[in-house]
Amino acid sequence: MALLPILRYPDPRLYKRATPVTEVDDNIRALADNMIETMRAAHGVGLAATQVDVHLRVIVLDVSDDQQHPLVFINPVLVSEEGSCEREEGCLSVPGIYDWVVRAERAEVEALDREGRSFRIKAEGLMATCLLHEMDHLEGKVFVDYLSPLKQNRIKTKMRKRARETL
Ligand code: NI
Fold first, then answer.
1. Residue 105 has what DSSP assignment?
2. Low-confidence residues of the chain, pLDDT below 70?
3. Where would you tag: which of 15, 30, 44, 88 has the fewest CB atoms within 10 A of its CB?
4. 92 CA from centroid of ligand 1 (Å)
């Protein structure tokens, strides 16, 4: 397995829309495994392929307490969502930035697993928030896009400054 470099906001590649996976083969499994390793190394609870500059509809998630129960979602589709809740979100592509976003409280999602088998999950709470956050990445959307233009500009400035400092 390998650690993959994570794109940093406001990298324009984060705004690409991902295309569906046509076949869940060993390449896709290797991508998912590398994404899980990358997510763990970065202490994240979710990662979308978009964030590692692979524009395919693949998400990994692990909201378990011991961080040992990763889930792989390939070609995830939102079946239904209900309610709303506001939660403080962060993102591995926007390190150190946290802000409040309103999303559905519950979401039912259908996807393929690592073996290409179809499954459905009824997510709620943190799991629903993470899943919807990661599905947004596949549409080329970052949680910062939900914030006010003023906050977005502040975050962009901060991220660009930080990128210059680490060169
Ligand atoms: Ni994110």
1. S
2. 167
3. 88
4. 6
